[in-house]
Amino acid sequence: MNMSVFMCLVLKICVLLDFVTCAWTGRRASKYHGYYLLCSTIYFHFIVSFRLFMGKNSVAQIAFGRTPEEEYKDNMRHVAKLLEGDVGILFTSRKHKEVAKYFKNFKSEEFALAGSLPRETVVIPPGELSFPVSMLDELRRLGMIVEVQDGKLMLRESVTAAQEGVALTPEQAKILVKFDRRIVTFTIDLLCTWENGKFEEL
């Protein structure tokens, strides 16, 4: 790929809980399904006019060059300095305004991990559950008071799957998944652009 005719952007991967930004390490953030689906989502939008890289930042820094003497192209050392934390690198031939508009509106709902601080309370009310009877023991291990009645699973007491401002337990995180309650929102911020030797921090 002739990088001189492509625009390079550094993308900051953010995790939001009810639009409140949280800081995650790369290891924890990578456990979200949305983190893995991110590449395919962007791919189907930009199709053949882009390349997206998400890997070891230290290796990418060396590729770009960390000093004026090392940089592959003029001013790429400034891009290298921003490669920290949960970031990705997008190479595209699309116009800057088009790319910026796409990522400004990009959001992906996902499940929360244990340890997250919810911005809302989620309560599962008692009643009939749409799970097979074979899941009885599994649900009980999550702290749910469940019984079998007339061949159906019945939740006897309400369950607090998330409490505002209180860190999620592993059991609560699993309950949210089983009841398909996605309380985490992924967004992407553009940190900088590089095009034909010109660098701009956004």
Secondary structure layout:
Blueprint lengths: L6 E11 L2 E3 L3 H4 L3 H14 L3 E4 L3 H8 L11 H6 L5 E6 L3 H9 L2 E4 L11 E3 L2 E3 L6 H6 L4 E4 L2 E4 L3 E4 L7 H9 L5 E12 L2 E4 L1
Antiparallel strand pairs: 1-2, 1-4, 1-11, 3-4, 5-11, 6-10, 7-9, 8-9, 11-12
Summarize the structure in words.
This protein is α+β, with helices and mostly antiparallel strands and 202 residues long. The protein folds into two domains: 3-111 and 183-201, 2-Layer Sandwich (Alpha-Beta Plaits), CATH 3.30.70.1730; 122-178, Molybdopterin biosynthesis moea protein, domain 2 (Alpha-Beta Complex), CATH 3.90.105. Helices cover 28% and strands 31% of the residues. It has seven helices and twelve strands. It has helices at residues 26-29, 33-46, 57-64, 76-81, 96-104, 136-141, 170-178, and strands at residues 7-17, 20-22, 50-53, 87-92, 107-110, 122-124, 127-129, 146-149, 152-155, 159-162, 184-195, 198-201. The strands form three sheets. Strands 1, 2, 3, 4, 5, 11 and 12 form a seven-stranded antiparallel sheet that branches. Strand 1 and strand 2 (20-22) form a beta hairpin.
Measured between the Cα atoms of the first and last residue, the distance is 25 Å
The dominant shape is elongated
The CATH homologous superfamily of the largest domain is called Ribosomal protein L10, N-terminal RNA-binding domain
Percent strand equals 25-35%
Query: Helicity range of the residues?
Result: 25-40%
Tally of domains: 2
* Structural class by secondary-structure content: alpha+beta
Please trace the helix and strand order, writing H or E for each element. EEHHEHHEHEEEHEEEHEE
| Quaternary structure state of the chains depicted | single chain
How much is the radius of gyration in Å? 22 Å
Please tally the β strands and state the result.
Answer: 12
CATH class of the largest domain: Alpha Beta
Average pLDDT rating: 78
> Would you identify the CATH architecture of the largest domain?
2-Layer Sandwich
Sheet having the most strands = 7 strands, antiparallel
Q: What do we call the CATH topology of the largest domain?
A: Alpha-Beta Plaits
Pick out the low-confidence regions: 1-6, 14-33
